[in-house]
């Protein structure tokens, strides 16, 4: 196997332990909001056969919301045990034959558990090198502490499959059309992303670039390194690490997912999904390695997660659906986000509509943008009833808060809502109790003349930034107790420059 590139928390030189103690840092707001931020004591999830997993109570996250309570609950999975060793899995086995045997053993254990009516597939401590894992209904894939599931860097193990009408390599963890599934434990899943990921030259130091080039692979146009010519030519086929599609009752609780080929989690057209106490760690200089992409889902809860990526940390998207508001009832709480393009990113695909999103008690360090709404004509839709509370940001490179309805300069300068298809509309968004502790620009709102960004309320928001704000095609922007420290008042500031915008600070 090729040596795996070391995962780093990136540009700020953070250590993995740096996230400890950040969850409650810098919070403002009322007592009710602060009580939600407290870590609920674990409860015991007892299923019919007596298997016990310590899981966080969900009730504190489902009460006192600004919209109707979503239907979110833990899946019910029987407690039968299926140890992968009993199905032929071998720890620390490096040969192609052993990897094939491990792939077969893990998937056979999952199949047996599902056929038995459900159960827990146990991955004990050790290094387990395997090909893709296919989830089945009523199965909990449990990686014990000390277990490292290393997905093979031999791409021949990943067959080409159909994904949204196009070809793709099969995902390392593939969960399509299943119910009542879980991935739990304190083990690690490594996606061998270093054998899939491209790296841009301007993202790394000269020494790092030389090391990459000398390691093999190919360089595209002198500016992009690829692990191989095949991957460069087939980059549209690179798989998501965990692919969840058309599923019901999904739990991810406890593991670390690192080094993903592209997006670590792609959650699509699924209902009742919980991602808690989970780490996603990708090198910050890798391409398209979104942490968690929540697309066209309903009733999703994320909490106590730590995400460090080379793209958006948490991305919310929607595409045209048979019903309005394809993405709705999304709760994101008590999490730490590092180094992504956007900490909380909405879009750029919003054409199916997004509503009822509550984001609370989030820390962001070193992201390019803090709160990032982005879309364009042709991929836009109505995003509304969106609430952000208790957000603490530090060292945001570009914008602390940004709305951009002309993402990628793809929206026409003129038109009407009736004459254009899929126009971005950002409306009724409340942003409360935010501390921006250094950013390039505090606030940017760039709407469209025929679809202004409107009904945005900022309350108890405190900015420190190089530049103040820019508003274009914005209506009904309300600011309550918003303070600004910017420009020369700031002195030295860690930031990256922001160009191409007008920051004339209109009154």
Automatic annotation (TrEMBL):
Q: Which GO terms describe its molecular function?
A: polygalacturonase activity
Q: Which SUPFAM superfamilies match?
A: Pectin lyase-like
The signal peptide annotation in the UniProt record is 1-33
Q: Which domain of life is it from?
A: Bacteria
- Say yes or no: keyword Mitochondrion present: no
Q: Which residues cross the membrane?
A: none
- Family annotation (InterPro entries): GH28_Enzymes, Glyco_hydro_28, Pectin_lyas_fold, Pectin_lyase_fold/virulence
Entry similarity comment: Belongs to the glycosyl hydrolase 28 family.
* UniProt-recorded name of the protein: Glycoside hydrolase
Which source organism does the UniProt entry give? Sulfobacillus harzensis
């Amino acid at each position: 196997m090729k040596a795996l590139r070391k995962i780093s928390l990136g540009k700020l030189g953070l250590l993995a332990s740096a996230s400890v103690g950040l969850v409650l840092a810098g919070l403002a707001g009322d007592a009710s909001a602060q009580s939600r931020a407290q870590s609920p004591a674990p409860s015991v999830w007892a299923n019919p056969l007596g298997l016990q997993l310590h899981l966080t109570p969900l009730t504190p996250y489902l009460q006192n919301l600004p919209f109707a309570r979503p239907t979110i609950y833990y899946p019910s999975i029987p407690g039968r045990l299926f140890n992968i060793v009993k199905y032929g899995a071998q720890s620390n086995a490096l040969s192609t034959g052993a990897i094939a045997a491990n792939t077969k053993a893990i998937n056979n254990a999952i199949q047996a558990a599902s056929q038995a009516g459900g159960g827990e597939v146990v991955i004990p401590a050790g290094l387990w090198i395997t090909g893709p894992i296919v989830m089945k209904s009523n199965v909990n894939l449990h990686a014990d502490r000390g277990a490292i599931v290393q997905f093979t860097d031999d791409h021949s193990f990943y067959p080409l499959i159909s994904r949204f009408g196009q070809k793709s390599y099969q995902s390392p963890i593939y969960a399509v059309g299943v119910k009542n599934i879980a991935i739990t434990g304190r083990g690690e899943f490594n996606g061998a992303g270093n054998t899939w990921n491209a790296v841009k030259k301007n993202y790394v130091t000269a020494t790092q670039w030389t090391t990459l080039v000398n390691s093999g692979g190919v360089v595209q146009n002198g500016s992009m390194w690829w692990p191989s010519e095949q991957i460069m030519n087939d980059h549209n086929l690179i798989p998501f690490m965990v692919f969840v599609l058309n599923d019901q009752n999904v739990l991810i609780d406890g593991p670390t997912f690192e080094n993903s080929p592209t997006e670590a989690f792609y959650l699509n057209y699924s209902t009742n999904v919980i991602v808690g106490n989970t780490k996603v760690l990708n090198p910050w200089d890798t391409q398209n390695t979104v942490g968690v992409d929540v697309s066209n889902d309903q009733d999703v809860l994320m909490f106590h997660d730590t995400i460090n990526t080379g793209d958006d940390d948490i991305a919310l998207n929607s595409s045209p659906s048979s019903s309005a508001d394809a993405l709705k009832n999304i709760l994101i709480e008590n999490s730490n986000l590092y180094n992504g393009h956007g900490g909380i990113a909405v879009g750029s695909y919003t054409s199916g509509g997004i509503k009822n999103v509550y984001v609370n008690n989030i820390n962001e360090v070193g992201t390019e943008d803090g709160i990032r709404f982005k879309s364009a004509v042709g991929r836009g839709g109505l995003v509304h009833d969106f609430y952000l509370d208790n957000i603490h940001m530090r060292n945001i490179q570009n914008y602390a808060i940004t709305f951009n309805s002309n993402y990628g300069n793809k929206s026409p300068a003129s038109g009407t809502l009736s004459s254009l298809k899929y126009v971005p509309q950002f409306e009724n968004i409340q942003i409360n109790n935010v501390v921006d502790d250094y950013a390039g620009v505090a606030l940017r709102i760039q709407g469209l003349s025929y679809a202004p960004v409107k009904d945005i309320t900022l309350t108890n928001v405190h900015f420190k930034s190089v530049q103040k704000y820019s508003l274009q095609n914005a209506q009904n922007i309300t600011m309550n107790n918003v303070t600004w420290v910017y420009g020369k008042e700031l002195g030295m500031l860690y930031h990256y420059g922001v160009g191409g915008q007008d920051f004339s600070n209109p009154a």
